[in-house]
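Dear support,

We are seeing what looks like truncated structure output for some complexes. This example has two components. We would appreciate it if you could run it in full and send us the complete token output so we can diff it against ours.
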Amino acid sequence: MTAHDHNLSRRSLLKGAGALVIGLHLPQAARAQSGAGAAFRPGGNATFAPNAFVRVAPDSTITVLVKHIEFGQGPFTGLATLVAEEMDADWGQMRSEHAPADVKLYANLAFGVQGTGGSTAIANSWEQMRKAGATARAMLVQAAAQSWKVPASEIRVEAGVLSHASGKQGRFGEFAEAASKLAVPENVPLKPASAYRLIGKEGAVRRLDSADKSRGKAEFTIDIHAPNMLTVVVARPPRFGGKVGSFDAAEAHKVRGVVDVKQIGSGVAVYANGMWPALKGREALKVTWDESAAEKRGSRELIAEYRALARQKGVVAGSHGDAEAALAKAGTVIEAEFVFPYLAHAPMEPLDGYLQWDGSEALARFGSQFQTTEHMTIATILGLPPEKVRLETMLAGGSFGRRAQVSQHLAAELAMVAKAIGPNRPVKLVWTREDDLSGGYYRPLFVHRLRGAVQDGKITAWADSIVGQSFFLGTPFEAMVVKNGIDATSVEGANELFYEIADFHCEVNNPKVGVPTLWWRSVGHTHTAYAVECFIDELLQVAGQDPVAGRLSLMNRHPRAVGVLKAVAELAKWNGSGPVDGRARGVAVVESFGSFVAQIAEVSLGTDGEPKVHKVWCAVDCGVAVNPDIIRAQMEGGIGFGLGHALYGEITLDQGRPVQANFDTYRSLRIHEMPEVEVAIISSTEAPTGVGEPGVPPIGPAVANALAKLGQPRPRQLPMVGGTV
Amino acid sequence: MVSLKVNGRTHSVDVDDDTPLLWAIRDNLGLTGTKFGCGVAQCGACTVFMDGKPLRSCVTPVSAVGDAEITTIEAISGKEVDAVQAAWTARDVPQCGYCQSGQVMSAVALLMENKKPSDGDIDLAMNGNLCRCATYVRIRAAIHDAARTLEG
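Here is the complete output from our reference environment:
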């Protein structure tokens, strides 16, 4: 049975285009039900076929349909690498584009729905994309064998060229049409690692998107223009949980270029011919907000409440031995309380989306990170069957978790603004930076209260009480991460440690607060890693042990953590924390998303009193290193992202209102604050895990632990510089 | 109507005088390589050249442009541009890529003024350009690469 027996329209398209399309590992029924026909792009791109990962064009270009959104972490390049490896393609013939929204074809195998997150792109594509490539190669070889009348086993493929000892040779495109008529083989064997020419090879692959992105040619959602399109900005309540009481749009309508003003669920939408009239129109609006149900507590009040909660019983998230008893009888008890502020993701491209509909069909184009649920949300709000709604994923200017919306609020707002103005008026919804930073969905504010005991140079007890909002409890996603009342994203990294401590206890309180929160690059590890790695360092210091040797002595059961810690110590030529010439070194080691990362930061105190991070050494074990240079880039970027927020990042609420509204007050790391970074990648045969997030968690505690050697206390409250609470 | 000289052509643009150059370029001229990131000259994503010098177009009203020649990422050219863009690609500087038009504009402006910038020169010239992906290590390396290329 061939891939196209059940889809004649697609088959005829393929025939016409002379292209090979391969659909893989899908029950035929699923293929028939997928509604994927709706995702065909009209016009010139007629060879496109959605129920497939690999497309070979007559000109031999190979396009990989990437089911994960590309917003910097490299899936366009990474997934194409896996396909190219198994096809024995030449890297120069590879292309990538986003796959359409279709859960039957493009589900994230780790989620069961189409979506990106949790640093899963490579991990869940590792088998799937290699199989896609291997199957494509086998069919091209078979087509060439039939054409040349030679056994398939005698055909070689190298750098995109098929050849036979008889002297015959040809490129993939020449056999694309013939191969498209063959049955799809089952269980095509994959290459042994020893035969890899791209995977794990330095310099074999460059990013597919660098050239366009260096020339202003990459198209983002904000760049979409269409005839008759309106730009839309929305006035939203200044406090979370507020809503529109009444509004007067008379002055807004007087602004030249303003076309309409409509109330929608999230606020008041201003429709205009371009961004500037839309902004002026919004400025001219008079809205009275109903704040009767709004959250009015500020950060100061919340921190005080959380501190009190940290002294009450929580839900037990991890426990062995009897930490309370051990603490009660211990000679030396160390206590530390850590406070973490709300943080914004602040991707360079603020949220935006484009939608056109005619009353019966819709096309949405935006940086969709959860395609399946966003597709359904848009269809539901527009009152259309899902197969009448196309969702095209756009390149996005960063996310860091911001676009992975549990609440679907952007997709919902996009559909609402389109619906409110009515059919046949395409809309581009744009959030400004102020909308972004004051718009919520923050990394939640957290408090950790830690107590530890040191007896005879040994850490004997550890207790951690964690307090912070859950963004999962009470949502439809609850089943994904909440078990026994524990939201894993609140406690990951803190409820189980590498470190063997006889008496251990970790509990959590998730208070209800009316501030919308969300995961933020590395999720729970953004705070747990800081609390745990600062506190273990402090206890080791009290125990008189070296930060590296002391950690190693406690983590015998975690060989991969040991591996990265030893590797980073070697890379940095670790010889104690110092200080030497005013510079001290601090270390941290964290497992997140199945990857292990250790970092050593070299820090001094600047004349302005601010920490100056000169250099960071980083060792990462992410299993098989598919694209070493992208792994390095993610470690560099993760370090910069983590460092910027540990040093400067904070959203403060004053009586419920966000204080920071733009980059003048939401201080973001700049080039002169970026340390030099040196990365070692551990050689591994383990299945690959992600790198988008794991570079982030260790840097904050590594810097804090270095500061402790410069005569500064480890900062108990973040950010380290300029905190306002 | 406002007259704007952009990328070697004079355009009549039907916008209010207070419209920031950024939105005239993007919405009215359809040149979208220049990006919006903050609207308050804090991030550099909107950097264009005015008479060859870098300018934050998000806070520059079209009324202030006058007869000046505006050049955007779509039309920059010259040996510094070639060297910077080649270095950017060879180093795989971009991640999400959204800020990179502005980064490239600032880097080109630096190299037009200073053929062999030090790290301190790079800090001064580039610290107005935010990159939330923190590609700074590679931006720095690529500028040094480009300077070496220009040296020949």
